[in-house]
Amino acid sequence: MEIIFFIAGVITSIVLTLLFLKKNNQSKKTFLDNEVNNDKNKYVTWSNALNLIKDQIIILNKNKVVIYANTAALTRFGNSIVSTHYASIIRDSNFVKAINNIYNNKKNISVNSEISLPTYQFFKANIYYIEQGFFDENFSIMVVLQDLTELLKIEKLKSDFVANVSHELRTPLQSIKLGFETISSGPAKDDKEAKKKFIDIMLNETNRMDQLITDLLTLSKIEQEEHKRPGDKINIRDVLNSVSSNLQTLSENKKINILNHVTENCFVIGDYNKLVEIFYNIVQNAIKYSNSNTQINITQFKNTDNVTIKVKDEGYGIPKTSIPRVTERFFRVDPEHSKKIGGTGLGLAIVKHLINQHRGEFHIESEIGKGSEFFVKLPLHN
Question: In sequence order, what are the residues at sequence separation of 6 or more whose Cβ sits closer than 8 angstroms to the Cβ of residue 356?
Answer without folding.
Answer: 226
